[in-house]
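Narrative summary of target 7.
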Amino acid sequence: MSTNASSHLMPVFARADLAFDRGEGVWLHGADGERYLDFTSGVAVNALGHAHPHLVAALQEQATKLWHMSNLFRSPDGEKVAARLCAASFADVAFFCNSGAEAMEAVIKVVRKHHAAKGHPERYRIITFEGAFHGRTLATLAAGGQEKYLEGFGPRVEGFDQVPHGDVEAVRKAIGPHTAGILIEPVQGEGGVRSAPQSFFKALRQLCDEHGLLLAFDEVQTGMGRTGELFAYQWTGVTPDVMALAKALGGGFPIGACLATADAASGMTPGTHGSTFGGNPLAIAAAGAVLDVMQAPGFFDHVKRMSLLLKQKLASVVDRYPAILSDVRGEGLLVGVKAVIPSGELVAALRGEKLLTVGAGDNVVRFLPPLIATEAEIGEGVARLERACASLDASQRKAV
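Modeled conformation, tokenized:
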């Protein structure tokens, strides 16, 4: 890892000393003249790879028409994309914004305002889970509850009660007269690619129904096909009341969304929320193009096949290199490999093999190939992992 001392960018990222000129599909061309296999997808953003022709055409066409008009006026194209998202999900309404953190802020406001509008403003607290990551704003940091991100930013935003992930009894005990809802990621991406059994999600839904709470899903990373369905809630066996989307929604163009049932969003009336850039015509064009591709017949069948192939191949490497890797986890093409050595060392070794991956909590390395990756490209990625593991294993043996 390296930072450029001469850069005027605020040094809040530990950037790798690597830059790219262009991308095509699952490949990135580095400024160093090398070609890299991209299994980060911009941290689950470039779900359709780089320079996808349908997305490029949609943005180019929109760029000649209208870039911005604000939410003071109707957005016919925004209304169409909102209708498509609602038709494909549990939701009745959608609010567009620019990022995952903004989508999560909207979710939090929807949950709180829902109860206030029904005469219970005292119900504002939201139950969240250890290991969660919901964004970098003050409220979403408080929802995630991770001290390393909260330190130095003063008093945390009030109203979040964290419990152990997967512990139904802890959730039950945390519910009180001030509880408004429960917020969970179907799969904790940043938290180490951790999920929970269907029975846990069903128990959360039942508790929400019993106590009049809203069930909120953070699908910023899991949504838009990453887990093998358009939305991850579709395999949990339950339906949330409100949900955040972002990352892959624009295929690389910044856009987020908060989806909700009409009842959940009943408190969101004119003036209660807003966004200057939310639903920007360029972003909406990108989101519409992403939906075109993802809703084409056979798209998710392909994702599921590639997921099974990737997991099988990764499990084989884990078996052969137990001193480097310990297990494979995840859903769809949100796949994690738990490392035995420090995960950062594995990420660096993979970069040396021109394979780009991204770390996560619990000493996990995430493999997030574009959803369009072919069988050959999946195989090539795992072959590069195997070479990295062989090199690391040999180094360890030599050290002993």
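The longest helix spans residues 375-399.
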